[in-house]
């Protein structure tokens, strides 16, 4: 499969692993971008954007990066916090009064960012197309009774996170989430990264190719096994009660792309992901664009919630105020082994099926990987992880006995 783009000589192993992804690991279409000390050192793409038409993945191809969207939404909250307009330790109801219903008076903004609010799903059956109606979703969540006592544990708010944090951003900034992100982040940085895609860009989007979980031998994560066996469980409410958003005909539609979900659905590519995290790898500023202060970057990288069994995804997870932290799940059963293996200084977010964006301030590194063929889990599979590993090796990092974390 022809690979296009550029890389600096010391990052030749990244190119080699990218080629192996196509030759040996089933990659269909993808892009990877890496910056170090603000300089782009890898910018590669290749493969097929749309197997139905045979269209190639080119330098301008865009794709849904799924939960990598959460990193963009969390960044918006941190920008407001850094400006002194949002207190992460304040009750959500201070900014969103209607939220103080059904025992949620004491829920903090921090709880939303840390997936501790108990709103990973809602019991009330959502109508078709619910995720395209911001007011419906936010009013439903404001009225909802938590699935657990907020603040006592965390469970991945896989699809509600964006409505929860995004509504706080809207109430504080006076702008819809997608507009605030465009004005505060993607616009100033010149990124092709949208939380609500303009219709004029739709033709550039490579459709997501979901995994076939019914194929014999496919390692189906516990999240989906429990969801399918018990629709009333927390995993079941997250996966199944979303108004049809998770169906292939929905999430690949122009309607979905133009809607703002905030937890998923951002349209960009590896260049956009690495570009968003580049200022955060440099203390919060790149060029003349200042997103946040160095102190806020430190907050963004600090673990604020860790759980040996996440109430939603049923595997260990760690969060830092809206961002994922490195976690090694390779000791688990084969269906639950997907992990996010970074350095302890890094923070970012994966996207369902394997996409990834992160910043590593100590290494002054930002990374983006986006693809159209999803893996089976919500973590980083061997395609993305092989690229991350090659980057860290090129920077002289090592791992103790091939352990999870990278050390510089």
UniProtKB/TrEMBL annotation:
Residue ranges of every copy of the Beta-lactamase-related domain listed in the record: 18-376
Pfam families in alphabetical order: Beta-lactamase (PF00144)
Protein name in UniProt: Beta-lactamase-related domain-containing protein
Native source organism of the sequence: Kibdelosporangium phytohabitans
